[in-house]
């Protein structure tokens, strides 16, 4: 955070590429950070809007500790403004119902609920990266898995620091340049920052990628996956668009379109899933095709994994089990 020269009451936030110039007491575009006496900081420290127990698969993580029951936590605010956001009631506001919870109390809550991990999700966690890091540091000391669901549109150094405390991350690649401009209302060139951060994540932590397949923008999802291929090969999750927020008049993505895209991408990527409540998703051994894992919606319904090996041919699988 930098004070603006010649304008002592203004400060610049450098957490994300918006680089908001903030007058004293003003919120940034994300509605989560504020200029407080020349320091840009989180407006509502330790604020939690949501805390829900559920399977790690709900976060778009299929290849890390399958079936783990984790506590999913949200706050408020976001630095993107996606027209299809299903969490707009918390992502596009500065305040909502919730409670203040110090990092140690949140970790105690997760332990008390017998969760195996903590996920930051629902709104963009990294606009409140200080809290995420404090919680993840304590969570790891309590043997909890640390999970991040993010759009990855933040400063590269902050992103790398958070990844060092993160066991697995799912990054939402919203689409191609056109989708970032028309649907998410950010500078399209910022997609390059997201791709750069995906590359960083892949070096520091287990990484999976989600791509929404938006009605009328289906070809853009294909283009996004093609651009991602230059960064690396990840487990991919195609998200079915469901009308919401500012895109209520659009139809849900056709299942046929999703299946065609899935088959196309399976020529490049090893694992391409369609994340949707009514879908069954299988993971098979790439060598002998033995069924390894199966999920009904986000619920793990079959687990044939022997540590991280195929039970039939013994080949090591691209699935990580946290060793405590
Ligand atoms: S994190 Fe928020 S306040 Fe900071 S630059 Fe981004 S949008 Fe602006």
Q: So what's the CATH class of the largest domain?
A: Alpha Beta
- Percent helix: 10-25%
Query: Can you tell me the CATH superfamily of the largest domain?
Result: Aldolase class I
Q: What is the arithmetic mean of pLDDT?
A: 95
User: What structural category characterises the helix and strand content?
Assistant: alpha/beta
Q: Which sheet architecture does the biggest sheet show? A: 8 strands, mixed
Radius of gyration: 20 Å
Uncertain segments are: none
Oligomer: single chain
Alpha-carbon distance between the two ends? 37 Å
CATH topology assignment of the largest domain: TIM Barrel
Task: Kindly give the count of domains.
Answer: 2
Per CATH, which architecture of the largest domain? Alpha-Beta Barrel
How much of the sequence is in beta strands? 25-35%
Overall geometry: globular
Order of helices and strands: EEEEEEEEHEHEHEHEHHEHEHEEEE
How many helices? The count is 8
Neighbour order of strands in the largest sheet: 7-8-10-11-12-13-14-15
Ligand kinds:
iron/sulfur cluster
């Amino acid at each position: 955070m930098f004070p603006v020269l010649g304008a002592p009451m203004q400060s610049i936030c450098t957490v994300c590429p918006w680089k908001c110039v903030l007058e004293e007491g003003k919120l940034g575009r994300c509605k989560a950070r504020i200029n407080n006496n020349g320091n840009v900081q989180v407006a509502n420290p330790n604020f939690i809007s949501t805390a829900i127990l559920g399977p790690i698969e709900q976060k778009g993580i299929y290849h890390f500790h399958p079936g783990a029951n984790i506590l999913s936590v949200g706050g408020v605010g976001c630095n993107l403004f996606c027209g299809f956001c299903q969490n707009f009631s918390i992502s596009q506001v500065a305040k909502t119902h919730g409670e203040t919870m110090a990092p140690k109390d949140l970790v105690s809550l997760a332990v008390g609920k017998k969760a195996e991990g903590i996920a930051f999700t629902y709104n963009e966690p990294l606009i409140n990266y200080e809290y995420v890091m404090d919680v993840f540091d304590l969570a790891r000391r309590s043997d909890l898995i640390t999970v991040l669901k993010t759009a990855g549109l933040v400063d590269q150094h902050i992103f790398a620091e958070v990844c060092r405390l993160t066991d697995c991350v799912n990054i939402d690649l919203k689409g191609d340049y056109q989708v970032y401009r028309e649907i998410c209302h950010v500078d399209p060139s910022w997609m390059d920052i997201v791709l750069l951060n995906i590359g960083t994540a892949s070096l520091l932590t287990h990484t999976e990628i989600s791509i929404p397949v938006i009605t009328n923008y289906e070809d853009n999802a294909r283009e996004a996956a093609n651009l991602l291929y230059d960064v690396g090969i990840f487990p991919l999750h195609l998200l079915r668009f469901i009308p919401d927020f500012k895109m209520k008049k659009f139809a849900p993505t056709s299942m046929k379109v999703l299946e065609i895209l899935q088959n196309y991408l399976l020529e490049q990527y090893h694992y391409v899933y369609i994340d949707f409540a009514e879908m069954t998703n299988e993971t098979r051994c790439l060598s002998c095709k033995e069924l390894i894992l199966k999920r009904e919606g986000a619920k793990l319904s079959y687990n044939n994994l022997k540590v991280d090996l195929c039970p039939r041919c013994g080949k090591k699988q691209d699935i990580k089990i946290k060793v405590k």
